[in-house]
Amino acid sequence: MFSSFEWMMAMRYLRARRQEGFISIIAWFSLLGIALGVATLIIVMSVMNGFREELMSRILGLNGHLSVYGQEKNVTDFDSMAAKVKATPGVVSVTPIVEGQVMATGNAVSSGALVRGLRPADLTGRAIVAENIETGSLKDFTGDGVVIGARLAERLGLYVGRKISLISPKGNITVFGTAPRIRAYPIVATFKIGMFEYDSSFVYMPLKAAQIYFRMPGAVTNLEVFVDNPDNAEKIGADILTALKGAGRIHDWRQVNASFFNAIQVERNVMFLILTLIIVVAAFNIISSMIMLVKDKGKDIAILRTMGATRGAIMRIFFLSGASVGVIGTTAGFVLGLSFSQNIETIRQWIQGLTGTELFAAEIYFLSQLPAVVDPAEVTTVVLMGLGLSFLATLYPSWRAARIDPAEALRYE
After folding, report:
1. In terms of DSSP bridges, do strands 202-206 and 109-118 run parallel, antiparallel, or are they unpaired?
2. d(CA 316, CA 320)
3. Which of 61, 370, 92, 50 is nearest to 202 (CA)?
């Protein structure tokens, strides 16, 4: 498609001489702009993907894909209901849960907490907790022993072997009014899954102890259901309602976390649009540098035309000159973006150590590490967009070069 002569002339025009240094500087800035734009897009989209995947894995690892509630306030015949739900195609596991808000206290420090009562076997089978036990052991999760988040234990100054006091807002009714219900439970283990919200507020309690504490003998608040594919949760929920003959209410993970994940998606789309403007600006720089190059090389173009070069050959020469800037910049941005994304946590730790500041606070961003997941389809889209804008930016200057009339260009030379 391109002859060796056209390649030679295009590369020659890229290596500007001393009097053409300003044009060369603009071309270098264009290359740098495209490289930074492509790299930034890859890095930001990878981090956004990492956030979504990490949050989903933790949220859906601790919370069921579906929650089945009774028609009334609590579920009394939960074992028979769980058996019907478990028989539904696509359901992996069903866990009876007693859930309630409490105030946790220790060493004169208080913090809000969420108590979740479940059977010891169910907690042991929950990999995201069982595989992230920081101190203690789940073997002691019996009787009145509780498992709490590591950050909650740190905030209250507690550790395994100490007792945590739980205060229920639904207290005991006395002649003097409602008195808060307070009870202390020994801590048998702490967990740290890497999500601040859960590590600082969750308290796991054996099911029977939770039923006693919340005064729900023989009943649970809901059934937590895990399915084989979270994306099919809505359809499986409809099947569960059919199996229960309408005797229940279903909430799936999308309904519970809809606003949260929608916010992430909107932010992701806006960031993609904003950062694309970096590449667009760099493409305009290519146009300006190429127009200046064509204007400066008017005499050379006229001589090439008188020597037999066609309009198409002239157009291809300048197209190659401009496109080379875009291709080199996009390639450099691709390599830089992938390298940065693959080592983003190491880079963050190095910058934090160098500056002595915390760049990624878990209290704000919910995660204790900066995640990044590279999506090949998105990277391909970014690279093709960078190349496409670079090629489009060279078309008009190349067309202008091909339209130069040799006689007019040489008239005053």
Report:
1. parallel
2. 6
3. 61
